[in-house]
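User: Can you fold this complex?
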Amino acid sequence: MTNLMLTPGLADHFAGPLMPILAVRDDRFRAAIARAIGVNLDAGTGRLDAFVASALWVDFTRAVKPGAIVAVTATHPGTYVSYQVKGPVEAIDRADDCDVARARLSIDRMLGVLNSLGSTRQQLSHMYTVEGLLRLRMRITEVFAQTPGPDAGARIGAA
Amino acid sequence: MIRLSNLRDAFEGIIPSVVGTVDADGIPNVSYLSHVYYVDDSHVAMSNQYFSKTIANVRSQGVATVLVLDARTGQQYVLDLSFKEALASGPIFERMDNQLDVISELHGFGAMMKLKTADLYQVTDCRPVEPATTLEPPPPPRPRCDRLGRAAALGFAISALDDADAILDAALDGLRDMGFGNVMILMPDADGKTLSTVASRGYDRRGAGAEIAVGDGLIGRVARSRLPIRIADMRSAVRYAASAGGEGRSIPLPGLAHPQCQMAVPMLARGQLRGVIFAESETSFAFDHDDEQALAVVAGQLASALLLAEMAADTAPAQDAPACPEQADSGKRFRFRYFAHDDSVFIDDDYVIKGVAGRLLYHFVRCYADSGRCEFANREIRRETALKLPDLKDNLETRLILLRQRLEDKQGPVRLVRPERGQLRLLVAGRPEIEVVDGD
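Assistant: Here's the predicted assembly.
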């Protein structure tokens, strides 16, 4: 089944180099934040897998639970084109070897991209690790444009 | 809670920060934002441009979570924030707006990131994101040096001088000794629309007379806003065309080919902009907040000292004009063209200077050609109505220094020397053929 709000353009965006960030509500009714190493969008099912290093993002890992609504904003580092997707978490699993290998490739790719844009390994030094890598699967129920500008925050789709 | 003053490098706006909020139903929202601005040890301000959902959530819930990254070390910190107020004016807003403009320009956003309000937050907690593994070892800590103390000492030394030449030399030498290896001092022109380089250190050319428009680039923005700006790390930035110019009636600004860190502070005295001090380095994070404060201390002292020097020169007694010394190559002719519309001067088709300094040069050479006069007293110059010098704010002393240095840089047939304080001597090698051009 094809998810109509996940257009080919959106799918292309999520397949590109991205700096994904996540938030979930914690028990203090505040946002707990994490960075994801990579995301995989299945436009057919409307599901998104985000890979988060639990060793780094302790607050987020503590707060996120199946059924919780999670927000993921994925920004292209070169163009700043951004989309935010929201929806319930369906599953949180320890990443398997295949996921970890893919995450390492994603780190290498992002380091290359960000270095070419002027960021140094030192600046990115604390951002990328696969320690305690989790695969967080969410079902996308809302999509928002998030590119900096007057249209940021506009809802462009809902399930 | 970690003191925010211990992580100033995380508030430089180099790496975008992350802000997370929740709405009344607990639905989260997460966004990048360009700038989290340090206010004091327990307050920050965030730029409110377009992230309206974040603003709506903050207004309804009163809290936000922010992730900042120290762009020198890579260390990340999480800040819990409690909203205090939205500022649409005032010093925090002005400074943030200014900094944001520069960062927008550096990253090629233009005016897209215009600040609507600076939202002030109390920081209720600040904690590090403990690194699991790191890609690089931490960089060595920044060396501690008492820059503020040294700035105060330099300010004291400057304030003991009453001669503009000596003041500028002392300031530039002192700044070099403080570690500011590449520095220039610029002064506003009479029309207030441009700044001209008066003196510099650490460049392959002095650039006396090089201009930049008020509002352009880092220096021009500081002149317009009268607020300091520091860009700690320019590695990911679109480069400012700091050394643009040099065609036609302009002189290229001196400047590093690959600056990684730049800073400019206004020189203010009696509420007036007297100039801008600009410093740059090829090393990222070469200047921190303490350096900015130190430079501001020196800038204030320099502005006051130069203003007092102008006043002292105005009251200096006029000397009897001695006979002109024998001029070399007196038989050789050269073409001296003066363009009245912008007071620009060309010698043998080579651009020399424009503006007030050009008008002064024309006056000197015209007097020399008409009467053989070569000695001029500052006091007389100031009273010469044909020069249309608008009183003290015109910086006559510094403009004469600029003109002297420019002529020295050009190594042409016209030079100015300063036989004694308040006096100028025109040295002319040859016979000027003066042409006054009324149009372009």
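The longest strand of chain B covers residues 117-129. Residues 88 and 117 of chain B are 5 Å apart (CA to CA).
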